[in-house]
Write a structure and sequence with these properties.
By secondary structure, this protein is an all-alpha fold. It has one domain (23-184). It is built from twelve helices and no strands. It has helices spanning 8-14, 20-31, 33-40, 42-51, 53-64, 69-84, 89-106, 111-126, 133-141, 148-154, 156-171, 174-184. Helix 4 (42-51) runs parallel beside helix 7 and helix 5 crosses helix 7 (89-106). The longest helix has 18 residues, at 89-106. The radius of gyration is 22 Å and the shape is globular.
Length: 187
């Protein structure tokens, strides 16, 4: 264990009288809690599907509010920006993916394209006040003479560039999908 690697033998000795497979499982669950959360996120998805929430939301947006698929997509991106100011990307994904991903598919959009839009949108949200995670990270790394107010003022060009990129990718989906199409659709 002194060489920086965890060996099964040392993991087993740390776990007391558990068997080797139990101790390995305990080490992995302690070290990697995210995959467990990701697997448990299928539970809300099953509940939403069973209750017909996706169909209900789709009908509210398309029939009652008479919104176009593009307008629904824009509202979804705006909700990500709003949620991203106070939630991290994993929390947002667990909350809305069971609703948004089937809705995006039902509206006829490419899911890879939507995943790229989601990624860009969460990065925009991480840079926008009041609680942009990246702003606090920049503050922690900045010299003491640079205040949080200075950092807030300096993000405007970066947010505008990312919003322009998001709009371009929304208008021209092939910007985001040409490489996956090229790689996965070769004979």
């Amino acid at each position: 264990m002194g060489n920086g690697r965890i060996e099964w033998r040392s993991a087993a000795s740390l776990s007391g009288d558990r068997t080797l497979s139990q101790s390995g499982s305990a080490v992995c669950s302690d070290a990697c809690p995210l995959p467990g959360r990701a697997l448990r996120s299928n539970v809300p998805r099953g509940v939403f599907d069973g209750l017909g929430a996706v169909k209900a939301i789709e009908s509210v947006f398309t029939e009652r509010l008479n919104l176009s698929p593009l307008m629904i997509l824009i509202l979804m991106q705006l909700s990500f920006i709003l949620m991203g100011t106070f939630l991290d990307d994993t929390a947002m994904l667990v909350i809305v993916a069971p609703l948004y991903v089937p809705l995006v598919g039902a509206l006829g959009f490419d899911l890879i394209w939507y995943g790229i839009l989601y990624t860009i949108t969460t990065q925009i949200a991480y840079m926008t006040p009041p609680f942009g995670y990246n702003l606090f990270l920049m503050r922690a790394m900045a010299p003491p003479e640079i205040s949080l107010k200075d950092i807030y003022a300096s993000i405007t060009p970066f947010v505008l560039i990312m919003v322009c990129a998001l709009i371009l990718i929304m208008i021209f989906p092939s910007i985001a999908t040409w490489l996956p199409d090229y790689v996965y659709n070769q004979p």
